[in-house]
Amino acid sequence: MHFVNVQIVKESKYNITQPLLLAVILAVGMLVGYRLNDRGELSLIQKEYASKNASIKSINEVLNLIENKYLYKTNSTNFTDDVMSSIVDKLDPFSRYINSEKYNSVNDRLEGHFTGLGIESLFVADTLFVTNVLEGSPADKAGLKSMDRIVQLGNSVIVGKDRDVSEVRDIIKKYKGKDLDLVIVNRYGKKVPVTVNISNVERNSIDKNFLLKDSIVYLSISQFTKYTYRDFMKIIESYAKNDKLGKLIIDLRNNPGGYLREVTKILDQFFETSKLTMVKTIYKYGREDVLKTSGRNFYNIKDIVVLINENSASGSEVLAGVLQDYDRATIIGKQSFGKGLVQEQFKLDNGAALRLTIANYYLPTGRSIQKVLELDSNFVDLKSSHYEKKDTFYSMKKNRPLISGSGIYPDILVEDAEFNKINYLFWEKDSLFLSWGIEYIKKHPELLEMDKNAFLKSNIPLESDITDLKEKLHKDIKKTELFLTFLKSRIGFILFGYDTEGRIIADNDPYLNKAIEHFRNKR
Question: What is the CA radius of gyration of the chain?
Fold first, then answer.
């Protein structure tokens, strides 16, 4: 996860109320209603349908009989959660029952914030190491650094075997809004008492941004949270000259979606013309909503590349698809996931929530990116939806053929077998490689004195330190340049954060190399 507590110091020109197209649409499943729906509407639905549907009445009767007549005492909460999950699981893959225990964490992720220290950490052997301190977070304000070791939280000593991060999380929760006294062993080996106020930390959904070759601005959006548009505009403002930006790469690889409202606000910045259709949403019984551009873009962004892969879904497919439909950007990468359905989240009386698929959405050309769903016909009549399949559509400006269904097809395909293999290995074994990075820095304390630029330019010796990795991975690791680059990126992450990690990998990233080549060919 990438978390940042962003504080706006100055009033930027884009921090004004925009005449937003439809103020009630958002995503990660294309969730409808910025408040995730209130109780009033759900109560009306319950009154309307509970009296009409004998099946719903039967479910309530069974649960009530179990509660009141069954010989043994039961856990009614677990019963309800299990029954609700079983029902919803018979629907499509994106409808979901969220129990009360998970509700807050799920919503915090969507809202883009959480309560805590504001660190990323890892237990290595018997000690909790700080691997990243989030900018502007409570931990950052208290002076914590990566490679610090936390040995005590309040009165709880957290050093020892079989410790777990969940134990740390439980302690921190008890201090929400309060000061928590820590004892740390800092990166230089000195034991230091630290006091941290446990407060709100914003998740930074734009986890990397930096300049590439040829003055290309690169930014990576991991998910569209409540603050993504604001953070996007701050980054564009920092790089723009005279309100102009020449070349921009938006990396949406592995982005599962998010608030549709944030997606459309970002899209709005790429079009000077108003009333252009961005997304059409068609609900049950044929009702339609259309999101259109406002014509109020604040920056002139000339050339755009969007990077996608097979894990780019939902809101990220909307951003890529709209720009592709209008020939406004070049899409580079792999075919995307293929999710063209809209969900709405309803809060329930028991503290849980129901996230329910309620509509299809369509791109400006009229095409859908929804892949074929295999649903159980005993429970769902797929033919009853308003999804319309058509093989080929054509882009709005250049009249290029565009494929409909099964995601967004890139304009330029990337062959990335070796890169993907190593990237997946580092993702799958993330804790192992972080542990290795921590041990490497402990062996080479001079790295703690290096500044970021010196580290980026350095050729630190890595080959002799991977013997233990081979044993732990149970794999024959080849000392390829790409593998060693990924190792250095892990060390760079621990020392300097996500940007440095991204910069180290950039030169070896086939997606970025294709994007740079594309920009050069346009000269």
Answer: 25
Kindly compute the dihedral angle of the four CA atoms of residues 476, 482, 483, 485, in this order, to the nearest 10 degrees.
160
Kindly report the backbone phi and psi dihedral angles of residue 475, in degrees, each rounded to the nearest multiple of 5, phi listed first.
-135, 150
Task: Write the DSSP symbol of residue 213.
Answer: G
C-alpha angle with apex 93: 90 to 97, nearest 5 degrees? 70
The answer to whether 318 and 358 have CB atoms below 8 angstroms apart is no
% of the chain beyond a pLDDT of 70: 87
330-333 and 300-308 as β-strands: parallel, antiparallel, unpaired?
parallel
* 27 CB-side CA count, 13 A: 31
Annotate 446-470 with three-state secondary structure.
HHHHCCHHHHHHCCCCCHHHCHHHH
CB atoms within 10 A of CB 87: 14
- In one-letter notation, the amino acid at residue 338 is G
Report the Cα–Cα distance between both ends of the chain, in Å, rounded: 37
Mean pLDDT value across the chain:
85
- Report yes or no on whether pTM surpasses 0.85: yes
CA 291 to chain centre: 23
Residue with structure tokens 């995730």?
36
- 218-270 pLDDT per residue, tens: 999 999 998 999 999 999 999 999 999 999 999 999 999 988 899 999 999 99
Find all residues with CB under 8 Å of 203, minimum gap 6, and list them.
Answer: 1, 2, 3, 4, 109, 112, 113, 114, 225, 227
> Which is nearest to 156 in space by CA: 142, 145, 169, 146?
169
Taking each helix axis from N to C terminus, what angle separates 54-69 and 39-50, rounded to the nearest 10 degrees?
A: 100
Residue keyed to tokens 């070759």: 213
The residues facing 130 across adjacent strands are: 121
* Distance from C-alpha of 22 to C-alpha of 261, rounded to nearest angstrom: 8
Closest CA to 282 of 30, 2, 510: 30
Q: Measured between alpha carbons, how far is 83 from 77 in angstroms, rounded to an integer?
A: 10
Choose the weakest-confidence range: 28-42, 152-166, 186-200, 392-406: 28-42
Q: Are 118 and 110 in contact (CB under 8 A)?
A: no
- Which of helix, strand or coil describes residue 421? helix
Structure tokens at 307: 């990077």
| Residue that has been written with the tokens 């304390």 in this structure | 445
Number of other residues whose CB lies within 10 A of the CB of residue 173: 11
